[in-house]
Amino acid sequence: GAAKSQRPRSATPSSKAEKLRAPTRPQSAKPSSNPLTNAAKGPPAAGTEEAALDDFCKVLDEHRKQCEASAKYQEADVAMNRLNELRLHEENRQRQALRAKHIAERVRVEEAHTLEFNQFNAEWDRRMAEYDQKAAELEEAMKERQNEDLSEFRRKMAAAAVRPRFSSDLLNMRKIQETLAKQKEYAEAHKVKLKADALEARELAKWNVHHQGRIGAQEDKHVYKQMVELEALQKRVLAGSDEHKRQRQADLHRILQRYQNVKTALEKQQTKETASRERAMKLK
Q1: What percent of the chain has pLDDT over 70?
Q2: Three-class SS of residue 173?
Q3: Cα gap 205→166, rounded to integer Å
Q4: Helices 186-283 and 73-159: crossing angle, nearest 10°?
């Protein structure tokens, strides 16, 4: 007759460790036959999700309970010790991962600050160099214009020069000289001419001193006006440069303050995250 079908016997909770499943792994990985063997191979890879390790620890803890219920105390002790090792290893791994994450965050903040700081200095160096160049161009243009203006002033002064006005004594001596010459008294005319020439030379020298002094005074006044104009420009340039420096310092202060605020906020966040992680690990 037909063979009687037999229902397979289900494994009891205290069945051998070969029935335990390994923690979740990629589909290509085959489950091991014994959780202790799996545990001896070390904790899951660093990239394995934390939930997978939790599942594995639950399986291992269930095995410990089964061993305890079956009075297999040595296996239970081994399972408990390995479970503690796995948990301690995972705690250390999590601490290291958190420290690495915090270091990476701080490095990113430092790199961002360094980049911003370098860009800030480059931009302000460019602004200051551009300002200095424009200021130098303005000053040079003013000096060239003033030189041309002074040359034109001198030309006008030379063109406007007046003939000297001689004294009545000199004019009278010249008339006497001419009269004597007309009367053919050349000897006397010559004597009078010598006296008149000497007097004219003295008066011309005196007039030249006075005339040059007057021209020199007018030129000095003109040059002084140009000097005041140039100094006013230089003062405006210096005031603008000082304003640029004050603005640069104020902007730098804001950048540094923002950096300190971000750094302080990150430190508080990381401290809070570390404390939260430690509390979570203690509760497991």
Answers
A1: 81
A2: helix
A3: 11
A4: 170
SS3 121: helix
Q: What is the pLDDT of residues 170-220, one digit of tens each?
A: 889 889 989 989 999 899 999 989 998 998 899 888 888 877 778 888 889
At residue 28, the pLDDT reads 37
The 3-state DSSP class for residue 99 equals helix
The pLDDT confidence band at residue 42, using thresholds 50, 70 and 90, is very low
On the 0-12 / 13-18 / 19+ scale of CB atoms within 10 A, 60 is buried
**Is 88 a residue whose pLDDT tops 90?**
no
H helical segments located in 41-72: 50-69
Q: How far is CA 9 from CA 6, 15, 242, in A?
A: 9, 12, 94
- The encoded tokens of residue 15 equal 């069945």
Pair 46, 93: CB distance under 8 Å: yes
Which residues does 89 contact at the CB level (< 8 Å), separation at least 6?
43
SS3 31: coil
CA angle 242, 245, 248 (to 5 degrees): 150
